[in-house]
Amino acid sequence: MFRMSALLWLGLAVFFAYADITVPVSAVATYPGSWQASIPVQHWQQQQRQFYLDALLAPAATTLAAPQRLQQEDRGSYQAELWQIPLSSISHSKALLLTPKSQPIKAAVLLLHDHGAYFVIGKEKMILPFAGSAFKTEAQHWVNKHYSGRFIGDELAEQGYLVLAADTLGFGERGPVLYEQQQQLAANLLATGHSLSGLSAYEDMQLAQFLAQRPHVPKGKVAAIGFSMGAYRAWQVAALSEHIQAAAAICWFNTYQHLVQPGQNLTKGQSSFYLLHPGLARQLDIADQVSLMAPKALYLINGGQDPLMPVQGVIEGHSQLKKVWQAHQAEQTLRTEIWTEARHEFNQQQQQQVWLWLEQWQKQH
């Protein structure tokens, strides 16, 4: 009897370990924090932005040590530097900073790296590693896979932009964690009154402030650009930080209704803890969160063949965004596109369009 019970429990354990677990709860039909035409849009943004900030469970503000430059490398028309940047009372990160040498700085760009379930590198997914780095092969493989073989940070530096990219907790020199350790990381933070998504968002805000304060950065000319999880972080930091005036977000935009369907990544734990703020989805849909950055310039790109971002959710979300930008009389600063043949990628053709958008934006501001 004991053996039979043990086998039964073992079978149940294996079932629950590998089965997709869903609960009979779906996204709400309406969100109480969504903007209504009867509410002054600036008042709505101020109120809901504070709700968003509270949901971060951010570390208490404190005086931090000064950032330190650790290494530098001449790359011809621009200089590469490795910095150690204190970000909060409980965290710091190493970041790569690219500074043009032979021309005035057009604007500054905060690059926010993707997730991709690949933790060995973070900032090197977007900026070429130093000559002696042990991760040059891994970085080249990653940009070949997702960025048409291009280190987009270096391309922007060559065009005259000051560029910054840092490791998010769990990635690169702040890891690497194993895929199945993400949940443990998130649980440890929650157990101490923080959250993985909130700490990441707060750190991005700190990086935006660091970047805006760099010498020779034109006032009011700091943009955020990201792909995949980095796209989520790009519009998020633009919504929450006064130091970011524009954002280009490639392949992370939708509605909760479509992202919490059974089998969607947002409901599977692990990686989703970088994207879920406690209580936020009870008040604001994703488009509401993005709309907190209006009337700043926003360029959203999604792929029509992207299995992670259902197209119908993208279309519905675009409609919600347009209402808020129109309320600001700023329809011209919102650009939304679905590339019908594109998958989950930031390819060369998309990059060219983003660089043109960035050039036009920085000339107008």
TrEMBL record:
Q: Does the keyword Magnesium apply?
A: no
Domain spans labelled Dienelactone hydrolase: 151-352
Record flagged with keyword ATP-binding: no
Pfam families linked = DLH (PF01738)
Give the GO molecular function terms: hydrolase activity
Segment forming the signal sequence = 1-19
Name of this chain's protein: Dienelactone hydrolase
Taxonomic source organism? Rheinheimera soli
Q: What phylogenetic lineage does the species belong to?
A: Bacteria, Pseudomonadati, Pseudomonadota, Gammaproteobacteria, Chromatiales
